[in-house]
Amino acid sequence: QAMIPVLARAFYSLQNTAIPFFTGLAAAALNVVLGYFLSKSFGISGLVAGFSISNIFNVILLWLLLKPKLRGFPVAGFRGALVKTCFATIIMFVAAMIVGRWLGRFDLLNFSGALIELLVVSIISSEAFIFIAFLVKSEEFEAIRRKVLASFVKS
After folding, report:
1. Which one, of 49, 6, 8, 7, lies nearest residue 31 by Cα?
2. Which of 12, 13, 8 is nearest to 24 (CA)?
3. Which residue of 84, 91, 113, 154 has the lowest C-beta tally within 10 Å?
4. If pLDDT is split at 50, 70 and 90, which confidence band does 75 have?
């Protein structure tokens, strides 16, 4: 989702506001449709899945429409980072779905139960993202990791 504003700003710099608007509109429509159908089978997790899928769709669509306008601009590194991040995000989503389904067996309908479920799903799915980002040698992940480690060393 963080890539959407970056890609939209690239269009804005080219004096084009229509493409980000219409891709956002298409992604919102896809989000509504996926959210409706996936929530019937997966509940809240289906809404999350619809949101994630529609945002990935928006990023891919923006990228495909921007790429021809960037002739001569080195995009290979950006494409690799995008693929690695999308892959790690998909694994994070799968981990969240599995953990959410597993936790669904317990009675977590009160506030504290929902909070526990949120925390457990967030922690485990975030760890899945971090692990995959590490495995695929994401340069962005490495930069963040080095920055965090450096902040601990300075202290």
Report:
1. 49
2. 8
3. 154
4. low
